[in-house]
Amino acid sequence: MTDLFHLVIAVLLVLVAAYLPGFWTVRALAGSRLLALSLAPAISAAVAGIGAMVAPVVGLDWSWLSFAGSGAVLVLAAWILARRGVRLPATLLDGPLVARRSPAALVAWIGALTAALAVTIGPIAARAGRPDAVLERYDTLFHLTALTYIRETGNASSLNLNAVANTAGRPASYPAAFHDLAALVPLVDIPIVLNGTVLALALVPWILGTALLARVVFPRVTWAPPAVALVATLIPASPVTLWIHLSPVPNLAGFAALSGALAGAVALWTALAAQADPAPQEAARPPRGGIAPAPARQAVIAALLAIGLAGAGLALLHPNVAVTALILLAVLTTVTGLPQWRRRPWLIAVPVLAMLPVAVLAYTPLGARVTGFAGGLQVPWWNALAEVGLGLLTVWPMALGVVMAALWWPGLVTALRTPQRWLTVAWLVLAVMYLDAAVDSPLNLSVLYFRGQDRIAIPLAMLSALLVVPGLQAWAGLLRRTLDVDAARGRRPVIAVLVVLATVAALSSIPTRLDNAAKNLAEHYPGRGRFLQADELAQFARTAPQLDRDRSILASPYSGAAHMYALHGLPAYLPVAGVALNDSDRAAIEAVPLAGSSPPHCRALLDQGIGYVYQERLLYQFDPAFRSIGERGDDLGTVVFETEHSRLIRIECDPGQ
Q1: At 397, is the secondary structure helix, strand, or coil?
Q2: How many CB atoms lie within 10 A of CB 78?
Q3: Lowest mean pLDDT among 94-108, 509-523, 555-569, 579-593
Q4: How far is the CA of 72 from the CAs of 23, 53, 67, 87, 620, in angstroms?
C-alpha cells in the first residue's frame, strides 16, 4: 500500500512539473487556456532541460528550487514581452475543449474514457503486480542508473548524463529532459519514480494532446476531441505500450508531448495565416492613421517564441521527436501554404527552414551518432506493407488495430477533399518512413530514427487516431444512404449496435495486452531472458546491508547485478548495457579467471575499486566482451551468496607488493 501511495505521489509531482511552467508561460504571452495546455508539456521539458544544464554552471544541484527558478525566469520574461505587445494571437483553441452537451453525454464520454484507460493500463498493472516492478528491457537499466546518478550527484545536465555509460565518469551528452522531470520526485524509490514518471508522461500529454489536436483540426465537429482521445487511449501503438514493448522512455515521453505541441503549432499557424490573408473587406479597410498595425508582427514573434520553446523541449526529450515535429510542420505549411505561394513567395521559406535542421542532421557529421547506427528489426517488404495497411504496427500488434484501420482508411481518402488534406499527406510521409525502417531500405529515410519502425509507429498512430474522425463521418454517410436512418428514432439502434461492437473490440484486446505485458514484466516467460531472477533479488536484498559500498561489483551489464545500483545503492562497475570499455576495464574483465593465483591480475581488479565479482549463467543477453567474468573464480575469495544460476564472490586475492 505504501508503494502504491508513492507511485501516486510520483505521478502527481511529475504532472505538476510537466504542466505548470509551460502553462503559465503561454498564459503570460496572452495565450488561451487550451493553447497553454497543448504547449505546456513541451515547454516545461525545455524549462527542465535547460535549467538542468544551467544549474551546475551556477553551482546549484538539480532540485525543485532550481527547477522553479528556471520556470519563474521564463514566465517573468514572457510577462515582460507581453507588456511590450508581444502577445499570442487568438486561435482555434480559444474557448472550451468540447461544446456544451447534456450531463448524460458528458458522463458517457467520461465513463468511456475511464473504461479505455482500464483496458490499457489494467493488463500492465496485473502483470507488474507491484509499483516497483522493473521492466525487463535493457533500456530500463540505463534509465534506472541515470536517475540514481542524478540523485547522488545532483547533476542532471544533458551535457553530462551519459557519464553513466563509461567507468571513468567522463561527461558525455544525452537528452535528459525526461530524467530531469523524473529526478524532481524526492525520497521515493527509483524504480517507482521511473514507473510513475512514464505513466504520467505517456498517458496525460498523449490523451489530452490528441484531443486538443482534434479540436484544432476539426473545429466544427463537436464530438471529435473525446472520440480521438478515446481512440488514442486504446490504439495499440501508443506511448505506454511502446514503454512495455521496448522501453525507450525519452522517445515515448517526447512523442506523447508531440501531440499537444503539434496542436499548438497548427492553431498558431492557422491564426497567423488568417492574419496574413484577411477577408477581402478587411483587406480593403485602410489601416488606422495610415500605418499598418504592429500586433501582427508581434504575434508572429510571440508564436515563434512559443513554438521554439516547445521545439527545444521536444529535442531535449529526444531529438527524434523534434525531427518528427519539423517534418510534420513542413508538411502542414507546404500543403496549406501552397495556394498562396504565387502571391506570397516568402511562404516557401517556412517548410524549407523546417526541413533544414533535418537535412543537416541526416547528411552531415552532426548526426553521425545516430546515422552511424547499424541494426534494428528488419522484415520482408510484404510484411511491412501488411503492418501499415492492416494497422498491425510493430508496437503491440493486435486485432484491435485492424478494426481501427477500417475506420481511418476511409478518413485518409476523404480528408484529401477537405481543408484537412495535410493530415493525409503527413500520414503518407510517415508511412513511407515506417516502410523504409521496416525493410532497412538503402534510401535511409528513417536514418534519424535508428532505422527503427517502433519509434515511427507512435506519430503514425497519432495521425491515424485523427483520421478516425473523417472515417467515422464517411461510414455514417454510407449507413444513412443504405439504411435510411435519418430519423433520430432510427439512428439510436444503429448507434447502440456500434457502441456494443466497439466495446467488444476493445475488450477483445485484453488477452493480447496481458500476454504482451507478461513478456517483459512477468517473473518468467518462455523463450525470453530476464535481467532479474527472483532468487538473486532475494539474496541481494538479504546481503546488501553487509556489502562494502566503497567497492564496486564487477558483473556483466546483462546480468541482474547491474540493477543493484538503483535497487540497493550498490555500485556496479559496469552500470549500463552498452557501456564504453577502456583498456583498464578490459584488463579487469580478463583478470577475473586468473586473479586468485596471479598478484598482477589481482591488482588489475583492486586498482579499479572492484571488491566483488558476480558470475551468472543465465544472462539476459550474451556479449563476448564480458565472457571472462563468468570463468573460473573459485579461488578469488569468499562466496557471499550462491543461487542455482549465479554467485557473488568477495575478492580476497593477494595483490602482492
Answers
A1: coil
A2: 26
A3: 94-108
A4: 12, 16, 9, 18, 45
- Region for residue 294 given its phi and psi (left: phi exceeds 0; alpha: psi -120 to 50; beta: otherwise): alpha
The DSSP symbol for 642 reads: E
CA proximity to 251, closest of 363, 144, 175, 309 = 175
Q: Are 196 and 7 in contact (CB under 8 A)?
A: yes
The residue length of the chain stands at: 657
Q: Which amino acid is at 23?
A: F
Q: With contact defined as beta carbons under 8 Å apart, do 225 and 385 qualify?
A: no
* Phi, psi at 364, each rounded to 5°: -130, 165
Return phi, psi of residue 419, to 5°: -60, -10
Contacts of 603 (CB under 8 A, 6+ apart): 655, 656
Residue located via cell numbers 483540426: 217
Q: Do 649 and 636 form a contact (C-beta atoms < 8 A)?
A: yes
Percent helix, strand, coil in the chain, to 5, is 65, 5, 30
Phi, psi values for residue 292, rounded to 5°: -60, 135
- Beta bridge partners of residue 638, listed in sequence order: 650
Please state, as a whole number, how many other Cβ atoms lie within 10 Å of the Cβ of residue 502. Answer: 17
Amino acid identity at 131: P
Among the listed residues 56, 313, 68, the one whose alpha carbon sits nearest the alpha carbon of residue 175: 313
**Burial of 350 from C-beta contacts in 10 A (0-12 / 13-18 / 19+):** middle
Q: Indicate the DSSP class of residue 654.
A: -
Give residues with Cβ within 8 angstroms of 364, minimum separation 6: none
* Strand spans (E) along 397-493: none
CA atoms within 13 A on the CB side of 407: 23
- Whole-angstrom CA distances from 342 to 338, 339, 345 are 8, 7, 6
Threshold 0.85, pTM exceeds: yes
Assess whether pLDDT exceeds 80 at residue 479. Answer: no
Angstrom distance (rounded) from CA 100 to CA 102 = 7
Locate 627 and state its grid cell.
565472457
Q: Across residues 192-212, what is the average pLDDT? A: 98
Query: Which cell numbers hold the place of 468?
Result: 478516425
Cell of 7: 507511485
Separation in Å, CA 602 to CA 68, 118, 416, 598:
49, 55, 71, 6
Read off the pLDDT band of 289 (50, 70, 90): very low
Ranking 270-279, 376-385, 419-428 by mean pLDDT, the lowest is: 270-279
